[in-house]
Design goal:
Blueprint: H1 3-7, H2 10-16, H3 20-32, H4 35-55, H5 67-133
């Protein structure tokens, strides 16, 4: 198995199947859900208000009560809502796929454990049989849990 094949995980395979829109939604979600975005956004609004109130008094492109800024904020909120819903829908699909994978792994482990228990039972039966037919019954040690 090559190094590239060993590093291939479910996440990497899933990420390779994403459309460009889904990748963009993930990038935007990760950006919008960060403190740098919040800080930058507050800074932008303060600069907007300062320019239109003090730097260009009477000549600002958006004088108080900042109706143009309000329009931009409303459009941004609508767009953010759609992007966040797209990203949340993808996260739900990922969680469902991972839960199915976990369930399949649990079923396989259960089958393996059942096989091991069956083998253990057979080994104990063989030990009991050896102890029964052995002329020196102390020669074959049977674990205390098997008695």
């Amino acid at each position: 198995m090559s190094t590239a094949e060993q590093r291939s995980t479910w996440h990497a395979e899933h990420k390779a199947t994403l459309s460009s829109g889904q990748r963009a939604a993930d990038i935007m979600r990760n950006g919008m859900g960060s403190w740098p975005f919040v800080g930058g956004f507050i800074f932008f609004m303060l600069v907007w208000a300062a320019i239109n109130t003090w730097v260009l008094p009477g000549n600002g492109w958006d004088p108080y009560p900042f109706i143009l800024l309000n329009l931009f904020l409303s459009m941004l909120a609508g767009l953010q809502g759609a992007i966040l819903l797209i990203a949340a829908k993808r996260q739900d699909a990922i969680a469902a796929a991972m839960a199915q994978h976990d369930y399949d792994t649990d079923l396989a482990a259960r089958a393996d454990i059942g096989l091991l228990l069956k083998i253990n039972k057979q080994q104990l039966e063989i030990l009991h049989e050896l102890r029964r037919i052995s002329p020196d019954s102390d020669a074959v040690a049977v674990p205390p849990t098997a008695r």
